[in-house]
User: What shape does this take?
Amino acid sequence: MDKTQKALAYFQKGFACSQAVFAVFARELGMDETMALRIACGLGAGMARTCQTCGAVSGAYLVLGLKYGRDKLEDTAARDRTYDMMQEFNRMFTARHGSVNCRELIGYNLGNPQEYQQVVEENLFRERCEAYVRTAAEWLETVAAV
Assistant: This one.
């Protein structure tokens, strides 16, 4: 099973999109799975159901930071590479899906209990969000070479 399929399996089990993307790749980069799931937990549904940046996108950002991010103040090249990779990811994701914003992607305010329930009833997490998880994981695996 490739990483994209593993990420989809996490999502289908009920983990947030951010957790599904981050946990698979974090494990490959030496981070404990439990820690990765905890770190990414609050980023699902557009940052804790605030419908901001898509959780699959946020999960990808975490992966890029873990792989390429700087850990020494003077390492501006690592910072710049991380920023460049994130911007490239944003361009690709937006070109494919129209936005990186959860509200625009899913069409509902997930912070509103009635709208959240409507999304559940319409099975939109599976119908729409699986594609976002797939896009993020495929890009990380192929373009970012994680």
Observations:
- The chain has a mean pLDDT of 95.
- The chain has one domain: 3-141.
- DSSP finds nine helices and no strands in the chain.
- The two ends are 15 Å apart (CA to CA).
